[in-house]
């Protein structure tokens, strides 16, 4: 039997050379492909020294080359080398009339028009036309808008001039040396507008600029696109080609030899969860409130005015009797919650109904606490009957109440359901003639997670808790940095008495009551033994914002930044301060005098790393460090695993020595398989990593199955291996309510009475429940030497010092079974009973089968890894 010896990557010299070898091999393959492509293309074999380069736009910058300026050859098979990042995601991110020049030190500078309604233009620079620096979108003070901007460079003054025309046909100019500071805009004559755009026949008549460049520029552009194409091929690999890819593959024999002496400490926080109020994860989801729109604060703007039924009466209706139901805001219960239901009843018997979130689900014998703020506007002792009514079974619970006060008072009563039902409505019948106000109408199950008041749905919270997450990141994602400055999540709006919390539009197109607020998040973290990791916007909203400004990031005005920063400092006091401090007192009033021991705060969420961001992030970071050096700040490295924001995020993170940076990537299984070495080369002396959002989904759609989950399991072995630099990781998104899903895939789907964990959930659970604090390097000896085979078997061995347990995780993403002999060196395993957990299935399965066996180990024990499986073996060492 031929064995090929693979030594694991763990930072020593031998490991480095192995990695280099692998890279070399990939490189050779790549260049073989490249040569093949080159032969097939019409490029002359004796290349010209220099050519004309034509820059044109097909919603992004493209290039063509020519020797005579007549016959143009497009470069990069339709590849766009620079895209505009201005505007809402998708269709509004448009590049118009790009204008490219060579400026100081030969650096390429591109300016372009972003739309027809903002006095802004865009600019970006690049040394090679391939990697572009951050884009900036300066506001100009003159002209209605900026159309067809043109840029020129004056080497004597080392200064750039941007001239443009506006909607009125007037011409303007401004100058800059650094693309940060601009001279005041001056109106200029048409003669000053020197636009050297020409027309060329590429695929069709196209406008652009021409430059004379050395052939190497064209060659590099081609190479860059071919590299992308090559990577795309790898990333698009899926198991559907496995029959062909592994046609001759027979079951394999492997040997896993651990080197106990080389154990290294790894993060104890590796597996956590990221909770975001997306997909109805909070209201109608984890937050146990059963009444929808209890505060009558729903507003058409929650849904960008796109849903004519979405307003302050949503989910409510009036039936029977001579009565009217309006929503008023005169003298409401709190300025943050001004609206209430006003019922004018002229004949007893009118009923106000609420249908909950897709109906209310109740269980027989269980208690549901009804409460409401009520006020009699006209009439005394207004009598109410509160019912839980099932559409099929009729009344399941009933209680009587009466409103006797002319000012807002709370009425409450418990209701015990006589039956199980999923089709229940809350019915409030008015038995008297009169006029009354109702607000904050609530129906709360008594059985919440750990019995908390205003608590969480027990089944969902238990499912999350069972992952044993070491931390919870909240309240978002995009929800944290918001859709426009006004929509940035403000933690202070989410605490205190429920009626005083300030609801807000949820950027995912619905409404946040803030019933699940910072207090409840902290409480949940404490209840499940997880570190709280709140994320606060870095003074900038989401770069894809559609409201507030011209559709771009923008930033909190500098005059408001001191208060914004103070709010973040106050958060630390709210979580950790003594009860005699202003904010610590509020925590105590909420029922938690003991501090919550907050240690981490995230600043920013996958932001575009612009000057606007950098300025505000630096201010917040410095102030927070000064006020609370004990808090570990987590910065942002942009929305992708590469590119401008990733580079810039790491640059500013490194410059400021931010302890941890948050990376995000949603990728295909092929990406996760082919990038297992992503963190192997990370600099151990720089910031640590929090992989705050990741998920695998099939190429071309947000779909998951066992294959995607298995590729996550495989990648997670590499996070454990790199647990000295990767401190934390969390799958995203966590929860999704059926019928209200804005984002797929998600980890746990649910409806009103069922929780439906995905295969990926079971992967997370195995990692969460079987974490270690030491990583034990190991070598894998494999009977098949092929790279494509080798990279589909991944493993990690960790030790949990607290329980003295050794945990071996092995992923087999091959269509054949693999027998692995385990050699743990000096660790004696003879006679030890180990728990073996296996998740296995067909790649296309939507569910996964889990088996748990007890197995007695002996020297040379073999573990069978079924095709497409994830196996975990755990035992207490001696
Ligand atoms: O996880 C869903 C979204 O993905 C998050 O809100 C955001 O950070 C990312 O774009």
Describe the structure in your own words.
There is one protein chain. With 878 residues, the protein is an alpha+beta fold. Helices cover 19% and strands 33% of the residues. It is built from 14 helices and 48 strands. It has an 8-stranded parallel beta barrel, surrounded by 5 helices. A hairpin with an 8-residue loop joins strand 45 (833-840) and strand 46. Helix 7 (561-576) crosses helix 9 (611-627). It is globular. The two termini are 33 Å apart. The site of alpha-L-arabinofuranose (AHR) has 11 residues, from loops.
Q: How does the SSE layout of this entry go?
A:
Elements: E1 4-6, H1 13-40, E2 50-57, E3 61-66, E4 73-74, E5 96-102, E6 108-113, E7 121-126, E8 147-154, E9 159-165, E10 171-176, E11 186-188, E12 198-201, E13 205-214, H2 215-235, H3 242-245, E14 252-258, E15 264-265, E16 271-274, E17 316-319, E18 323-328, E19 340-345, E20 350-354, E21 360-362, E22 367-378, E23 382-390, E24 394-403, E25 409-416, E26 421-430, E27 434-445, H4 458-465, E28 471-474, H5 478-481, E29 504-506, E30 510-512, H6 518-528, E31 531-536, H7 561-576, H8 582-589, E32 600-603, H9 611-627, E33 632-636, H10 644-656, E34 660-667, H11 669-674, E35 688-696, H12 706-721, E36 726-731, E37 735-737, E38 748-750, E39 755-757, H13 759-769, E40 774-775, E41 778-782, H14 787-790, E42 793-800, E43 805-812, E44 818-823, E45 833-840, E46 849-856, E47 862-865, E48 869-876
Parallel strand pairs: 14-44, 16-28, 16-36, 28-31, 31-32, 32-33, 33-34, 34-35, 35-36, 37-38
Antiparallel strand pairs: 1-41, 2-3, 2-13, 3-4, 5-6, 6-7, 8-9, 9-10, 10-11, 12-13, 14-41, 15-40, 17-20, 18-19, 19-27, 20-26, 21-26, 22-25, 22-27, 23-24, 23-26, 29-30, 38-39, 40-42, 42-43, 43-48, 44-47, 45-46, 45-48
Helix pairs in contact: 7-8, 7-9, 12-13
Bound molecules: alpha-L-arabinofuranose.
């Amino acid at each position: 039997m031929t064995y090929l010896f693979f030594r694991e990557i763990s930072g020593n010299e031998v490991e480095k050379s192995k990695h280099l070898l692998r890279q070399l091999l990939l490189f050779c393959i790549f260049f073989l492909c490249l040569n093949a492509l080159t032969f097939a293309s019409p490029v002359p074999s004796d290349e010209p020294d220099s050519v004309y380069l034509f820059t044109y736009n097909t919603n992004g910058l493209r290039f063509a080359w020519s020797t005579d300026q007549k016959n143009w050859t497009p470069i990069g098979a339709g590849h766009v080398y620079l895209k505009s990042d201005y505007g809402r995601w998708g269709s509004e991110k448009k590049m118009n009339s790009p204008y490219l020049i060579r400026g100081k030190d030969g650096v390429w500078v591109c300016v372009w028009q972003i739309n027809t309604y903002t006095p802004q233009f865009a600019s970006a620079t690049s040394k090679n036309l391939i990697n572009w620096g951050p884009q900036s979108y300066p506001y100009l003070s003159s002209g209605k808008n900026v159309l067809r901007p043109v840029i020129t460079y004056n080497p004597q003054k080392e200064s750039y001039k941007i001239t443009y025309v506006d909607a009125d046909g007037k011409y303007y100019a401004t100058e800059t040396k650094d693309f940060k500071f601009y001279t005041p805009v001056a109106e200029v004559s048409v003669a000053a507008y020197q636009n050297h755009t020409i027309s060329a026949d590429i695929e069709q008549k196209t406008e652009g600029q021409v430059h004379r460049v050395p052939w190497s520029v064209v060659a590099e552009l081609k190479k860059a696109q071919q590299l992308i194409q090559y990577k795309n091929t790898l990333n698009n690999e899926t198991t559907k080609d496995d029959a062909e890819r592994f046609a001759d593959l027979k079951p394999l024999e492997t040997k896993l030899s651990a080197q106990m002496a080389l154990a290294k400490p790894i993060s104890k926080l590796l597996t956590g969860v990221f909770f975001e109020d997306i997909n109805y994860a909070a209201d109608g989801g984890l937050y146990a409130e059963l009444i929808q729109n209890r505060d009558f604060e729903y507003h058409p703007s929650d849904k960008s005015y796109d849903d004519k039924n979405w307003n302050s009466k949503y989910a409510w209706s009036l039936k029977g009797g001579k009565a009217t139901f309006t929503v008023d805001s005169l003298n409401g219960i709190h300025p943050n919650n001004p609206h209430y239901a006003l019922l004018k009843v002229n004949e007893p018997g009118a009923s106000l109904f609420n249908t909950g979130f897709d109906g209310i689900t109740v269980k027989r014998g269980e208690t549901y606490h009804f409460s409401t703020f009520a006020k009699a506007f006209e009439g005394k002792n207004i009598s109410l009957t509160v019912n839980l009514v099932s559409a099929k079974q009729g009344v399941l619970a009933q209680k009587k109440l009466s409103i006797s006060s002319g000012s807002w008072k709370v009425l409450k009563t418990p209701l015990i359901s006589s039956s199980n039902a999923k089709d229940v409505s809350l019915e409030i019948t008015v038995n008297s003639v009169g006029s009354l106000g109702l607000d904050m109408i609530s129906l709360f199950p008594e059985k919440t997670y750990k019995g908390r008041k205003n608590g969480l749905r027990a089944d969902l919270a238990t499912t999350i808790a069972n992952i044993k997450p070491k931390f919870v990141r909240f309240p978002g994602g995009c929800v944290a940095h918001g859709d426009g400055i006004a929509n940035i999540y403000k933690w202070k709006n989410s605490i205190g008495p429920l009626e005083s919390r300030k609801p807000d539009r949820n950027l995912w197109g619905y409404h946040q009551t803030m019933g699940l607020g910072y207090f409840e998040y902290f409480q949940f973290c404490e209840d499940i033994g997880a570190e709280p990791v709140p994320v606060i916007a870095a003074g900038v909203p989401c770069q894809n914002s559609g409201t507030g400004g011209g559709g771009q990031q923008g930033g909190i005005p500098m005059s408001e930044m001191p208060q914004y920063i103070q709010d973040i400092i106050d958060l630390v006091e709210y979580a950790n301060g003594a009860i005699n401090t202003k904010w610590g007192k509020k925590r105590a009033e909420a029922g938690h005098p003991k501090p919550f021991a907050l240690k981490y705060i995230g600043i920013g969420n996958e932001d575009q790393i612009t000057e606007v961001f950098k300025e505000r992030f630096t201010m917040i970071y410095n102030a927070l460090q000064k006020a609370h050096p004990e808090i570990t700040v987590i910065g942002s490295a942009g929305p992708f695993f590469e590119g401008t924001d990733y580079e810039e995020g790491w640059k500013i993170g490194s410059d400021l020595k931010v302890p941890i940076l948050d990376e995000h990537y949603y990728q295909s299984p092929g990406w996760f398989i082919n990038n297992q070495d992503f963190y192997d080369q990370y600099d151990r002396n720089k910031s640590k990593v929090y992989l705050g959002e990741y998920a695998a989904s099939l190429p071309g759609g947000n779909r998951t199955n066992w294959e995607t989950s298995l590729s996550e399991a495989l990648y997670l072995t590499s996070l454990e291996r790199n647990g000295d630099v990767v401190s934390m990781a969390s799958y995203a998104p966590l929860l999704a309510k059926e019928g209200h899903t804005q984002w797929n895939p998600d980890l746990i789907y649910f409806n009103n009475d069922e929780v439906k964990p995905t295969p990926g959930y079971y992967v997370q659970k195995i990692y969460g429940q079987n974490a270690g604090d030491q990583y034990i390097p190991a070598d894998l000896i494999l009977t098949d030497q092929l790279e494509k085979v080798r990279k589909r078997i991944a493993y990690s061995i960790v030790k949990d010092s607290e329980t003295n347990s050794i945990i071996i995780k092995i992923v087999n993403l091959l269509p054949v079974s693999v027998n692995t002999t385990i050699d743990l060196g000096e660790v004696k395993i003879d006679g030890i009973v180990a728990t073996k957990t296996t998740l296995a299935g067909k790649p296309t399965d939507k569910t996964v089968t889990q088996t748990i066996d007890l197995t007695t180990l002996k020297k040379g024990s073999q573990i069978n890894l079924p095709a497409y499986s994830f196996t975990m073996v755990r035992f207490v060492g001696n």
